[in-house]
Amino acid sequence: MTHPAESEYDAIAGAYKDSKQLSFRNYIEEFTLFETLGDISGVKALDLACGDGFYTRKLKRAGAREVLGVDVSAEMIRLAEDEERARPAGCRYLHRNAAALVLDEPVDLVVAMYLLNYARDVDELLRFVQAAYGALKPGGRFVGFNDNVLNAPGGTVSYARYGFEKEYTETPSDGDPIVYRFTNDDGTRFEFNNYFFSQGNYHRAFEEAGFAGFHWIDSQLHPSERDNRFWDEFMAAPPVIGFAAVRE
Ligand SMILES: C[S@@+](CC[C@H](N)C(=O)[O-])C[C@H]1O[C@@H](n2cnc3c(N)ncnc32)[C@H](O)[C@@H]1O
After folding, report:
1. Which of 21, 54, 82, 153 has the highest CB neighbour number within 10 Å of its CB?
2. What are the pLDDT digits (tens) for 128-157?
3. Is any ligand 1 atom within 6 A of the Cβ of residue 113?
4. Which atom of ligand 1 approaches the CA of 17 most closely?
């Protein structure tokens, strides 16, 4: 049976890829991720829910020895492989549901940029986190980004100047959809759903999977933009948040 996220992303793959050109991706998302990762020279990495390989390639170009990107959407993987053929970065890709992933050899680092907020229920959230745990060597890190569960007001929140808005149910509770509506720089509009889970459920999933030191990482703004008031609204109520944990 087709996984629901597969058909969702097959339909919006090109538009989602283009949304990686919105300025918050570079100045906040990417900056915070690589500040968190630090030196990744020589590591073997897995990019779970890699999409079109945007971060898979960046991890490889930042010095990772090997990077495997995994995504449930065949169309996203096709875009990633097309890019690999056009401009080889040395990445490999696999079309697979992250929840069922079993690797032959463990990795030093698992990155998951916006996977966990695709879980439909707490069991699936746990299976995603367990898959990351199972892929790691002892001492390996699990790092990623997520919908910001610490900032989940009810109703519609506009981040229009950054290219999107989010719509929550009035009082978000576990499993409720969060609708993201994007407008790309070229005016293309598209939307997709994430799913809300309380902080407590995230903490429990990481603990139950066996991770130590799970913590959220606030979005950080690239130093070159610190005096730019354009970012005030985003930074006052960050819509996305990082996280990190270690396999003991
Ligand atoms: C918001 S996109 C992020 C893509 C990429 N990580 C990035 O930051 O550009 C979410 C991705 O998660 C993938 N995804 C959702 N559920 C998944 C699952 N169960 N297993 C693997 N990938 C999944 C979707 O197909 C989509 O490519």
Report:
1. 54
2. 999 999 999 999 999 999 999 999 999 999
3. yes
4. 9
